[in-house]
Task: inverse folding
């Protein structure tokens, strides 16, 4: 925990204060607008093709504004950690970012493709026509729910592989290391300690009405009750499918948008990622949406310092399943 605090403190000292403050004000304004007029819900109500365009424009606008702030105040060369190399037990390798890096065509294309991919992920995929007609209710509905997230993760792997093969991610380290999917010099123990620290907050959230309206997600399978005996194996399979989504989230936000971009702009990749990450939580409870921005910052700093997403995956996946458990216990307490 001391190392985590030190990493984050060093990041706050080295990053641009004006860019950080203006970004927080900007994100706060977006959150206020979303929870008053419903930005995310209004987009989701559009036909899928219109929603795809709207999400793409929205995500590009968020990235462009925060990226512009980083360029405006973050163009000076900064010291940041690069590939983790152990020297006397510490990671000490440094790198720099130049002004021209912020508008390199390769990086801008990667950002645009990233915004398009996540826009595609946000729209609902109607896979009903692909199912055999012999599958009837409730198993057709169950299959559609179960396959949505794994198929979107498969699309992400395809997207990352294409970016790697075309050189957008660089090809000197291999695809896994280019997006932080590596266990090199990784110590999982502190991340489990961080989960223990967060446990009381999850317990508190599990008593809140807006939290219990969303969690546990497995309640989406209540339609199976009366059809599957027992139903818990099918619900467990759904939870595993749900967990795969967090591998995709970490690969995309901390892997692609942080580890994949630090070679261009260093730690200035963290703040745009955190703002983007916050916007994908607009359909979640308000407290979760607000905390996602700061959580994104913390996980981004850790990804830079360790050059791996495994720690973030432990925290994110642990939080997701603990929130499922908290939601289940919260509903039991109410009833």
Result:
């Amino acid at each position: 925990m001391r190392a985590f605090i030190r990493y984050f403190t060093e990041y706050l000292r080295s990053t641009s204060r004006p860019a950080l403050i203006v970004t927080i004000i900007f994100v706060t304004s977006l959150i206020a607008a979303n929870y008053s007029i419903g930005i995310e819900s209004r987009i989701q109500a559009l036909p899928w093709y219109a929603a795809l365009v709207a999400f793409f424009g929205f995500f590009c606008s968020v990235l462009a504004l925060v990226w512009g702030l980083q360029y405006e105040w973050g163009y000076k060369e900064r010291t940041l950690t690069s590939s983790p190399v152990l020297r006397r037990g510490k990671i000490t390798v440094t790198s720099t970012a130049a002004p021209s890096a912020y508008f390199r065509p390769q990086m801008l294309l990667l950002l645009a493709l990233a915004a398009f991919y996540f826009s595609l992920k946000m729209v609902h995929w109607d896979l009903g026509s692909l199912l055999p007609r012999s599958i009837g209710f409730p198993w057709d509905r169950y299959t559609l729910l179960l396959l949505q997230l794994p198929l979107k993760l498969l699309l992400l792997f395809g997207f990352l592989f294409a970016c790697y093969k075309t050189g957008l991610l660089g090809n000197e380290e291999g695809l896994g290391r280019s997006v932080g999917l590596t266990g090199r010099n990784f110590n999982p123990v502190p991340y489990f300690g961080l989960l223990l620290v967060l446990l009381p907050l999850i317990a508190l959230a599990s008593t809140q009405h807006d939290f219990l309206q969303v969690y546990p997600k497995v309640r989406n399978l209540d339609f199976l009750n009366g059809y599957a005996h027992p139903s818990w194996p099918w619900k467990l399979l759904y939870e595993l499918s749900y967990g795969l989504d967090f591998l995709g989230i970490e690969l995309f936000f901390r892997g692609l948008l942080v580890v994949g971009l630090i070679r261009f702009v260093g730690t200035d990749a963290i703040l745009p990622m955190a703002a983007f990450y916050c916007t994908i939580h607009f359909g979640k409870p308000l407290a979760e949406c607000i905390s996602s921005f700061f959580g994104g910052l913390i996980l981004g700093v850790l990804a830079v310092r360790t050059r791996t997403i495994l720690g973030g995956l432990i925290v994110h996946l642990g939080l997701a399943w603990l929130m499922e458990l908290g939601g289940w216990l919260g509903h039991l307490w109410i009833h």
